[in-house]
Amino acid sequence: MSSTSDRGYGADHQAIRKVLLDEAYGQPCHHCGHPMLKGQALDLDHTADRTGYRGFAHASCNRRDGARRGNARRRRSASLRTSEPW
Question: Where is this region: Disordered (predicted)?
Fold first, then answer.
């Protein structure tokens, strides 16, 4: 498994997260709409292409969304496989 830095969550990401975290408390999670509270695990959510940030989300909501997207991508690529070369 690659490190968090290899996946784009290195020092720059951590610095941005630290600066913005206090502003996230009390705001709604953009996935579920429920408020994000101190003590809850929160992720700084990024766009699918990792060129920008979408804001904070509950860690469980964000990771569920990432798993859903990854599974959909794998299903699409699996459906392109054939038993015979074209």
Answer: 61-86
